[in-house]
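in:
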């Protein structure tokens, strides 16, 4: 898997810049209380479903409530999911139409993958040779559930495959245009083309060159 072909989204770049600005450079730096502080929030634990609370008044303060019954990898996973809501969304989800709630949850899922397993950190890892081992490895390094690591790995792999396909298409189109340019014709092709023109002229057929 050629990681150099991966292209980060603007959201990924924003998260990366935030992390680097606050010296969060390695997987062990992704301590969730530290990450919450970087973005202006706090964490508390209660025996309830994980969720976020914030005010739509322009302030950056927010609270993420994590289910105290969760194990550490699951709690970290839910933290990075809930972190998206106060940073990127407005309004009480309970009051929003289902389509908007679904959209916000999709956005939170993407944010979760980018923030919990940042690509700039993945680049510096000694990735296993066999693909089947990579999700388990990422789950261990970033201390998240295997399900989250697997989604992130498939996302990275898909983005790389898309770029490989785009490059193949670009290379094919370039080769087609290159062959169509008379400058790149072989001497034999040029002779055949010249002979064809001469025969048309001899038959009284005009040749229009545009």
């Amino acid at each position: 898997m050629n990681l150099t072909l991966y292209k980060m989204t603007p959201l990924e770049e924003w998260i990366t810049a935030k992390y680097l600005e606050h010296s969060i450079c390695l997987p062990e730096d992704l301590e969730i209380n530290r990450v919450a502080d970087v973005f202006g929030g706090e964490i508390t634990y209660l025996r309830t479903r994980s969720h976020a609370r914030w005010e739509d008044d322009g302030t950056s303060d927010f609270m993420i409530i994590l289910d105290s019954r969760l194990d550490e990898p699951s709690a970290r996973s839910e933290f990075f999911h809930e972190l998206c809501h106060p940073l990127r969304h407005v309004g009480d989800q309970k009051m929003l139409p289902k389509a908007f709630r679904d959209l916000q949850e999709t956005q939170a899922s993407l944010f979760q993958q980018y923030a919990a397993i940042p690509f700039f950190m993945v680049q510096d890892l000694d990735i296993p040779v066999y693909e089947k081992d990579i999700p388990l490895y990422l789950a261990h390094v970033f201390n998240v559930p295997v399900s989250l690591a697997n989604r992130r790995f498939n996302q990275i792999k898909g983005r790389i495959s898309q770029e490989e396909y785009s490059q193949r298409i670009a290379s094919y189109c370039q080769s087609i245009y290159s062959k169509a340019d008379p400058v790149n014709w072989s001497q034999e092709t040029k002779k055949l083309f010249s002979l064809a023109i001469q025969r048309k002229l001899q038959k009284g057929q005009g040749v229009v060159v545009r």
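note: The longest helix spans residues 146-180.
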